[in-house]
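FIELD: query
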Amino acid sequence: MLVLTLAFSPVHAADASIKDDAKRAGRATGEAVHDVGEGAKKVGKEVGQGAKKAGKAVGNAAKEGVEAAKEGGKEFGRAVKGER
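FIELD: result
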């Protein structure tokens, strides 16, 4: 029994070493992917904020355009009627 234990001990130690190396590699990969994801999240938030501001600007410009068109229509109507 002692002979079998000594014969398999280096193999078991090598298996443990491989497992530890695999865990370290997996952890390092996971950290790298996490960091990339966090960076993408920050970029996404910045893009979203820019899009929100641009959308508001376009909406406000459209609203002003509608108001100007309404006023232009009123002026046209007054001109047709001969009002000043």
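FIELD: remark
DSSP finds one helix and no strands in the chain.
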